[in-house]
Design brief:
InterPro entries: Mur-like_cat_sf (IPR036565), Mur_ligase_C (IPR004101), Mur_ligase_C_dom_sf (IPR036615), Mur_ligase_cen (IPR013221), MurD (IPR005762). Pfam families: Mur_ligase_C, Mur_ligase_M, MurD_N. Cell wall formation. Catalyzes the addition of glutamate to the nucleotide precursor UDP-N-acetylmuramoyl-L-alanine (UMA). It is found in: Cytoplasm. By secondary structure, this protein is of the alpha/beta class. It folds into 3 domains: 88 residues, 3-Layer(aba) Sandwich (Rossmann fold); 209 residues, Mur-like, catalytic domain (UDP-N-acetylmuramoyl-L-alanine:D-glutamate ligase); 132 residues, Mur ligase, C-terminal domain (Protein-Tyrosine Phosphatase, Chain A). Helix content is 35%, strand content 23%. It has 17 helices and 20 strands. The chain has a 9-stranded mixed β-sheet with strand order 7-8-6-9-10-11-12-13-14, covered by helices on one side. The protein has a 6-stranded mixed β-sheet with strand order 15-16-20-17-18-19, sandwiched between helices. Strands 3-2-1-4-5 form a 5-stranded parallel β-sheet. The chain is globular.
Length: 443
């Protein structure tokens, strides 16, 4: 069996290692450059690879192709593979056939990473032999090759879900759905929504789908489509017979005929959206029979995720918050919604077709000044120019943070929540977040 891998990043190299171990004839091809450490791993494992090109004669003879999630379907080589009816799958699809572990798959436009990390924290604290993979850390395929976990918590992007055929998680979570990555879905929102719901397409009556029952797009999809999974909703607005809801200051869950309650004040994560993330993760812990006391302790000592509403420092009674992971409008909506003090907002980057109008009421209420940090800020200036008193354009993170220092007074918050991708000025959102934290520490 010939396995060809497109993309020499974390998921590509992990798949190559697993494929080699399972006796495939493996070839890896990357149209860009492969990082040195990955080249070493491939060479050490005797895996053939190429970079800066796709040699068709070595690719179109594949029995199966694993495509990295970053490569769109419209790339020529992918079109040619599909025309030849060669299966093009994701790393998740490939790796899942070689493990008997229970998988918990988590997707959504926002909150995926926090919910994934929190779920992992709850299960690990509960004593399960659990791995963490997907969009986070070491690739799923690599772990299936090297480790022996009983359970995996997987963060799954829509791109990873696009490449599944038979994979099904035992427990699926959809945190929420809002427009994102529409450039990859022909700017058709329903295509992106359907992509997210692929997470439940192979589930059976023995499996579970945990979802945000307040989310209009999720509700619409469930009204018009069928899943075989058992439904477990969570909500801040309505009480459900099964699932999670808020009862004043108490989070209540009803799962497996059992009740779980916790005072929301003792949950470490702040903000309404994080209450939902906590309900989703606690629902998984309940289904996996983790002790209630352990769930409570774990929810109260969870540290949060880097670059997601991360409190950096307080300087002269001004709090600096790093929310660089907010790469779309909906994520920034959550961030602004959780601000309780006058806010200087650092925003901007590569716009993925953003509509800023939903932020308007929050900006009017909470934002005293906007700092635009992007190559092209016209859309942000057009949207908010008449709404805030002060609007400044800057070209570097240092300038953004220094400008913020001059615009704040005691009791204010400086929030980096860009609502955009980072590729105009930074390597990625992590690089952007780290530069922010460094600039704050240098004040």
């Amino acid at each position: 069996m010939r396995l060809v891998i497109l993309g020499g990043g974390e998921s590509g190299v992990g798949t190559a290692i697993l494929g080699k171990k399972k006796g495939y004839d493996v070839f890896l091809s990357d149209f860009g450059m492969i990082k040195e450490n990955y080249k070493e791993v491939l060479t050490l494992n005797g895996i053939k690879w190429e970079e800066s090109k796709h040699t068709e004669s070595k690719i179109l003879n594949a029995d199966v192709v694993m495509k990295s999630p970053g490569i769109p379907d419209k790339v020529e080589i992918v079109k040619k593979l599909k025309a030849l009816s060669i299966p093009v799958i994701s790393e998740i699809e490939f790796a899942s056939q070689f493990t008997n572990a229970i998988t918990i798959g988590i997707t959504g436009s926002n909150g995926k990473t926090t919910t994934t990390m929190l779920t992992y924290h709850l299960l690990k604290s509960g004593g399960l032999n659990v791995g963490l993979a997907g969009n986070i850390g070491k690739s799923f395929a690599w772990q299936v090759a090297d480790e022996n976990y009983d359970v995996y918590v997987l963060e799954l992007s829509s791109f990873q879900l696009d490449g599944i055929i038979n994979y099904k998680p035992h427990i699926a979570i959809i945190t929420n759905i809002s427009p994102d990555h529409l450039d990859r879905y022909e700017y058709k929102y329903e295509k992106y929504i359907n992509s997210k719901f692929r997470i439940t397409k192979n589930q059976t009556a023995d499996d579970y789908l945990i979802y945000d029952a307040d989310d209009q797009e999720i509700k619409n999809w469930l009204l018009n489509n069928k899943t075989n999974a058992q439904l477990i909703p969570f909500s801040l607005l309505d009480k459900h017979e099964k699932g999670g809801f808020l009862n004043q200051n108490t989070m209540e869950l009803y799962i497996n005929e059992e009740e779980f309650t916790m005072d929301t004040k003792s949950i470490a994560l702040e903000g309404k959206h994080n209450m939902k993330n906590a309900m989703a993760a606690a629902s998984v812990a309940q289904l996996m029979r983790i002790r209630k006391q352990t769930i409570r302790e774990s929810l109260s000592n969870f540290q949060g995720v880097e670059h997601r509403l991360e409190k950096v420092l307080k300087i002269q009674n001004v709090l600096y918050v790093n929310d660089s992971k907010a790469t779309n409008v909906n994520a920034t909506f959550f961030a602004l919604d959780s601000m309780n003090t006058p806010t200087v907002w650092i925003v901007g980057g590569v716009d993925k077709g953003n509509d800023y109008s939903e932020l308007m009421p929050l900006v009017r209420e909470k934002v005293k000044a906007i700092i635009c940090l992007g190559v092209d800020n016209k859309k942000i200036i057009d949207a908010f120019g008449n709404v805030v008193d002060v609007m400044v354009e800057v070209g570097s993170m240092n300038d953004a943070v220094r400008t913020a220092l001059h615009l704040t007074e005691k009791g204010d918050t400086v929030l980096l929540s860009p609502a955009c991708a980072s590729f105009d000025l930074f390597e990625n959102y992590e690089d952007r977040g780290r530069q922010f934290k460094q600039a704050v520490r240098n004040l």
